[in-house]
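Minutes, project check-in
Item: structure for the 70-residue chain
Input as provided by the requester:
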Amino acid sequence: VSEMFPKEKFEELQEKIKEALSGKVVNFKHYVDYPAGKKFVDVTYKPHIDEAGKVLGFFVYVEDRTDEKT
């Protein structure tokens, strides 16, 4: 994950990632700079938990909410 974001952004997201890997669903909204411009997105980290209750990782859902923000 750290390779996907600038260092400052990764540090900001690291706490949310830890929460998701502890088994919690995490939801937040923020602005993201894309080549086509800045977007306002709704992000959810949903843990992937096996039958034994072990967290295997997490899924990331991102929804563009820019139109609702303008």
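Outcome recorded: The radius of gyration is 14 Å.
No further action items on this chain.
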